[in-house]
Each structure stands twice: as structure tokens, then as C-alpha cells.
Amino acid sequence: MSLFFSTVWVWDTALSALMVTLIVAATLKMRGSKQLSSWAAYGALWAAGAMINASVVSLLLPLAIWAVLPLRREPFLATRVAAASIVFIIGITPWTVRNYVVFNKIIPFRSNFGLELWLGNNPLVPDLWSPTLHPNNSATEAAKYARITEIPYMQMKEDEAALFIRTHPIDVARFIRNRFADNWLGMWTSPFDLWSRVSLQARLGTIGNWAFPLLSLVGVLIAYRQRNAAAWPLVSVMLFFPLVFYVTHTSSRYSHPMHPIMLVLGVYAVGYLATGLLRFFLSLRQARMSANSFES
After folding, report:
1. How large is the average pLDDT for residues 282-294?
2. Residue 219 has pLDDT above 80, yes or no
3. What is the DSSP annotation of 222-259?
4. Cβ distance 237 to 261 under 8 Å?
5. Distance from the CA of 282 to the CA of which of 31, 194, 222, 253 falls in 20 to 30 A?
6. How many Å apart are CA 240 and CA 237, to the nearest integer?
7. What is the 3-state composition of the chain as percent helix, strand, coil, each rounded to the nearest 5?
8. What are phi and psi of 144, to 5 degrees?
9. Average pLDDT over residues 234-248
């Protein structure tokens, strides 16, 4: 997928993955830093990430709080937080001003949340969402969008989605369950139902879809067991980044920005387990050699 999104899909996907990785790396570097300029640069990095992909903002609080926590008793804490916050606000202000001029409404990032929420929560959703209802694919919705203009259209769709969520809680719970599975496994149906009907290549892909998040989870557990300082920033990406997609709709393109972090955790798990196995076999060999030496 990393090759596909970076060479075929002309969108923010690969750049978003880079920004999430840079933000996590900067957070690890920034934790407890006393340099005012570093905090200002940290705010600028967050602003750039938010402008590339608004979903990145879902990580702001958990990562920023973790980075600033060691300074909680320092007298200069407020100035460091203020520096990062001011630079972040300055970074997103031009786009916010542009949106206000065009739409006559304060929109810091994007205006389409109402539509995305409705596409995943309406009576015509089969399993995950209803892509045929998107204005790009539906002449009826496109005409409605053109007639009432963007902001009223988005508000209308948000109201319709909110009504459906209130009146169909069981269906919404099922959609969220399916989207959770699709986000992590690349499918929402049981792989055992598909196993006998798909090719060997598809079966290998299914195994990979399961193994990748599983190894990432093992990496998280090992990191916490070892009290690794990087555990919380890494697991925060897996916990918080996909939350909005559980309630709207999922796609491999949406989850891709998490993959570099998941890869780090997966490699960490493989390295830890491989090292443990190597030590086990070496200890067995040493014990056998000691036993042979004693017998002779």
C-alpha cells in the first residue's frame, strides 16, 4: 500500500504518513525540552500537519500533553505552551481567513464533516458506508449541493446523520463494529467465510492484514512491559487517529498515515521475540555443553 499510495494515488495520503511520523519523532525529541524556539517549531510542525490532513489534529492533545508533562512544575511552562500554541494558530489562520471570506463562516480546517458523517450513517448504508450517495457519484446529491451551496448542504447532512444516529443505535453500533474491523484488518466480514472462495494470493493478503496489526499490538504490550519511554506516543497514534473514521467511514487510504508507526511497533515486536528465542537456544546450547563437559 505504501508503494501504491505514493506513486498512484495523487492525494495527501503519503504526505500525511510522513507528517504523522515527523510529529511523533518530534514529540519524542521535545519531551521535557526547555528551549522556547523548539516549542515554537513544534507548533509550526503541528500547523503544517493540520493543513495537510485535518485528522492529524486528533493526536494533538495526547501527544502534546505527554511532551509537556515533565515541565508541569517548571515556572516557564506557560511560555513554552503559549509559544507552541501561538505559532500553531498563526499557521492555520490564513486558511481559516480564506474559508471565512469564501463561506462567511469560521472553518479552521475542512467543511465536509457533516457529509462524511452522513455517508456512514444513513438508512442506505449496507455495511460500512454509502459511496454511491456522495455528490461525486450521485446526480441527485450533486444537484442538491449546487442548489443550496456547500455550507447549508453540509449542515443538512450533519443534521440528517445525527437524527439517524439517535433513532437507529443498533444499526450505528453495527456500522462502527464493521468499520473498526475494516480499519485494522482490511475487511469487516469473517475471513473464514471467504477463505474457500478466494485465490492463494488473496489468502496471503488476508494473513498479512491480520499479522500487521497483531504484531503492532504485541509491540505495544512489550514496550509497556519494558516501560519504554516511546510507548505512549506510539500507541496514541493507534488509539486516537482512527476514532473519527469509526463514526464516519473507513478506507485503507485513511488508515495509511498510521502504518509507519505500526511498522515501528511491529519490527520492535519481531526484534524482541527473535532476541528472546535466540537467547533461549543459546542457553540450551550452553547447558548442553556444560552437561557434556561434566560427563567427560
Report:
1. 72
2. yes
3. HHHHTT-TTHHHHHHHHHHTTHHHHHS---HHHHGGGH
4. yes
5. 222
6. 6
7. 80, 0, 20
8. -65, -40
9. 96
73-92 pLDDT per residue, tens: 999 999 999 999 999 999 99
Written as nine digits, the cell of 290 is 556444560
> Of the candidates 107, 83, 113, which has an alpha carbon nearest to the alpha carbon of residue 95?
107
Vertex 180: Cα angle to 142 and 169 (nearest 5): 70
Burial class (CB in 10 A: 0-12, 13-18, 19+), 167: exposed
Query: Rounded CA gap, 145 and 251, in Å?
Result: 24
> Cα(127)–Cα(120) distance, rounded to whole angstroms?
9
Instruction: Please write the tens of the pLDDT for every residue from 152-196.
Output: 999 999 999 999 999 999 999 999 999 999 999 888 776 666 666
Q: Which of 268, 284, 255 is nearest to 58 (CA)?
A: 255
CB 27 within 8 A of CB 70: no
Size of the chain in residues: 296
DSSP state of 224: H
Please tell me whether the overall predicted TM-score, pTM, comes out greater than 0.85 for this model.
yes
pLDDT band at 205 (very low <50, low <70, confident <90, very high): low
Residue keyed to cell 462567511: 104
What cell numbers appear for 135 in the block?
455528490
